[in-house]
Amino acid sequence: MNIEAIWKKMKEFEGETFYTVSGLPYTYEFIDENNIQPIRDGDAK
Q1: Model pTM above 0.85
Q2: Closest Cα to residue 26, out of 14, 36, 18, 34?
Q3: Cα separation of 25 and 18, whole Å?
């Protein structure tokens, strides 16, 4: 799998909730074409 395919998959899952190893929820959003902002519960957007 090349980087373009990986980046496309990451964009498809933007906004989905994931969990850390310790069970804390987080998500992420793209802030531009090359940067991702992680978002934890309670973080301001």
Answers
A1: no
A2: 18
A3: 6
